[in-house]
Design brief:
7 strands, single chain, 3 helices, 3-stranded antiparallel sheet, mainly beta
Length: 149
């Protein structure tokens, strides 16, 4: 038990004085409310899985019309883009003014798959804010084994 006791050193904290240690918290506490609640541009979250014959992609794009989504497949490159029109309004406050927060813009994601996609057989459907892509693998793109002479 005597080995676990620590000697009191009243100057230990002063010796390791770091004036910038709590700077982040200070700015967070004194930042204007507009900065603290500022919304950032929406992100497109995705899951990509693979079976023997195809790649399956699920991309979350909530609040978008399916006409505003574009999917491009070029070999093994897949690009997704969507036009976002997000409007939020709060009710009238005591002065009668309304608060309106809007975001208009485009989000996009591109990724490369290990194997080329058969773009003739590829399918896309959009339901409940999720884009489902079925991307069949192109047959015969496994490469060629060369014999050394």
């Amino acid at each position: 038990m005597a080995n676990s006791l620590m000697r009191l050193d009243p100057f230990r904290d002063l010796a390791r004085f770091d004036p910038f240690r709590d700077m982040d918290e200070m700015f967070r506490d004194f930042a204007p409310a507009a900065w603290r609640g500022a919304d950032v541009a929406p992100r497109m979250r995705m899951d990509v899985s693979e079976t023997e014959k195809e790649y399956l992609v699920k991309a979350e794009i909530p609040g978008v019309q399916k006409e505003d989504i574009k999917v491009a497949v070029n070999g093994n490159q897949v690009s997704l883009s969507a036009e976002i029109k997000d409007e939020q309004q709060a009710g009238a406050n005591k002065t009668g003014a309304l608060r309106s927060e809007r975001y208009y813009g485009q989000i996009q994601r591109s990724f490369t798959l290990p194997q080329d996609v058969d773009d003739e057989q590829a399918e896309a459907r959009y339901e409940n804010g999720v884009l489902h892509l079925t991307l069949p693998k192109k047959v015969g793109t496994g490469g060629k084994q060369l014999s050394i002479q």
